[in-house]
């Protein structure tokens, strides 16, 4: 039995080595693709090409008796690595006449990411940190674009502190809230103004498939090239008004982060044994716990800023608290039918999204289980 297993495992090892060689060759081809895209200004991420390729590979896998989901999982992981590799080849410069870009707060993680992407795209980038303010006039006097990338609670004050910028300079901010910073930029600068919100963390590695929200400020024709440059980096753009952005972010960020904060606070106050929770957890609970832990691994000031950004956020959290109390009342009253009725009402509100989300979550749960040690 041992000899038979050893022989089979040796064959598997040889197949794995062949797979490694093929992956190495694929990455070499990806590097060549990156060079071509860089030369012609093509975007890193082309959704039509990816969808077509995955559909073809799934069909071919099925003919060979290989589970289609398996090949899709493998290819998606390979493509994620490929998108990161394409970054190394640089990007076409869409506005070669642009004067230097100054990133205020460029030493922060998001500022560093934009500095890297702009540098890879052939632009001259300067950094203005807190200790550089005595030289702000020098760093900004000939700027073609100024990007403000500082903590939310400092954004408006930093914008107001900027010296007079060249009339054609593009003023941009990257804050997670948009209306107040946008108004501050419009008041501080008479030239082109653009509000951006990168909907991802600076540790993403690649902008491929990431969403960047943009809000019109002033003179969109002056910064259209920059939006196209971001698309070349692989990101998907979503246009929305600053007011609508903040209304939606109240649910996407403020409420969600508060609920996560409250759950983490409760776990800590109950002093539960995390090791036992993990040992007993299902994949979905492990994933949920990981997301809670992710929040507490980051900067508390950021989340305080997001949650407390407006009175509207606090009012939304208050309504959530009251509905939480109503849900508790169902339990205290032992009213199982009322619970079921409420459950079905929410299920009806989700509509077709409920089974869709259930399907999408299966891949996440498999990954959570795969990482279990």
UniProtKB/TrEMBL annotation:
It comes from the Bacteria. InterPro entries: 6-PGluconate_DH-like_C_sf, Chor_mut/prephenate_DH_T, Chorismate_II_sf, CM_dom_sf, CM_II_prokaryot, CM_T, NAD(P)-bd_dom_sf, PDH_C. Residues 1-90 form the Chorismate mutase domain. It catalyses: prephenate + NAD(+) = 3-(4-hydroxyphenyl)pyruvate + CO2 + NADH; chorismate = prephenate. One of its GO terms (cellular component) is cytoplasm. GO terms for biological process: chorismate metabolic process; tyrosine biosynthetic process. GO terms for molecular function: chorismate mutase activity; NAD+ binding; prephenate dehydrogenase (NAD+) activity; prephenate dehydrogenase (NADP+) activity. Residues 99-361 form the Prephenate/arogenate dehydrogenase domain. Pathway: Amino-acid biosynthesis; L-tyrosine biosynthesis; (4-hydroxyphenyl)pyruvate from prephenate (NAD(+) route): step 1/1; Metabolic intermediate biosynthesis; prephenate biosynthesis; prephenate from chorismate: step 1/1. Keywords: Amino-acid biosynthesis, Aromatic amino acid biosynthesis, Cytoplasm, Isomerase, Multifunctional enzyme, NAD, Oxidoreductase, Tyrosine biosynthesis. In the C-terminal section; belongs to the prephenate/arogenate dehydrogenase family. This is T-protein. It comes from Jejubacter calystegiae.
